[in-house]
């Protein structure tokens, strides 16, 4: 069944990091979305010009009637610029979704669950972690998250709190531009797998080069390719 465009209204907006803004939108879907899915948004200028982008959903499927989007402001980004600088609560946005069936995790799928995100690629993984915490907290999960600096870690306080309070969740940060920081490499992957155990499911999300490199590292570490799912953002 083809998805149709609908009106979604912004109910809240707040900064998440210096470059990322959290928007909450009221939606009228007839069915719940699945953790890992995304939406398309469409902006129309007074002269009829349209711009369309896809954004992953950050919230849990158990969050009723609203979804959260975490939108990173990109240099010269016409859509991200609008959501960063112009959009306010009360505004109506054209939206289509939920979209996607391959890069999703449902609580019944179990674990262990390995999540690897680069930059804003952590957003759909946050949806999975939030869903897991509400519906299947006993599923072991580890998030390996690469960001440039600590200040650019999306949902940093939440992730650190979960790491401290949830017995079956572990957070590993790879801060590439901090003093003494590191990138995700074979050693980092090995340490994550040693802490988590053999994952039943691995999800990798980020820019194309990041995702390709991580997927290769996971295969080299012995994970069956069928257990690895990837989502790629841009070039």
From TrEMBL:
Chain ranges of the FAD-binding FR-type domain: 3-105
Required cofactor(s): [2Fe-2S] cluster
Domain of life, source organism: Bacteria
A GO molecular-function annotation: oxidoreductase activity
Pfam families on file: FAD_binding_6 (PF00970), NAD_binding_1 (PF00175)
Protein name (Swiss-Prot/TrEMBL): Oxidoreductase
Organism: Methylobacterium tarhaniae
């Amino acid at each position: 069944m083809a998805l149709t465009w609908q009106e979604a209204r912004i109910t809240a907006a707040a900064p998440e990091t210096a470059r990322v803004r959290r928007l909450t939108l009221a939606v009228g879907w007839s069915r719940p979305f699945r953790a890992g899915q995304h939406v398309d948004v469409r902006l129309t200028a007074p002269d009829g010009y349209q711009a369309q982008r896809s954004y992953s959903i950050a919230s849990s499927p158990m969050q009723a009637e609203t979804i959260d989007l975490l939108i990173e402001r990109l240099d010269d980004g016409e859509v991200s610029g609008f959501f960063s600088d112009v959009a306010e609560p009360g505004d109506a946005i054209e939206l289509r979704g939920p979209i996607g069936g391959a890069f999703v995790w449902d609580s019944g799928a179990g674990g262990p669950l390995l999540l690897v995100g680069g930059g804003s690629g952590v957003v759909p993984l946050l949806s999975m972690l939030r869903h897991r915490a509400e519906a299947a907290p006993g599923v072991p999960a580890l998030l390996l998250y690469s960001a440039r600096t600590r200040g650019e870690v999306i949902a940093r306080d939440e992730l650190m709190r979960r790491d401290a309070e949830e017995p079956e969740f572990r957070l590993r940060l790879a801060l590439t531009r901090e003093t003494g920081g590191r990138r995700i490499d074979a050693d980092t992957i090995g340490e994550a797998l040693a802490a988590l155990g053999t994952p039943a499911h691995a999800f990798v999300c980020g820019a194309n080069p990041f995702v390709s490199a991580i997927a290769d590292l996971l295969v080299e570490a012995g994970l069956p390719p069928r257990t690895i799912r990837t989502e790629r953002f841009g070039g």
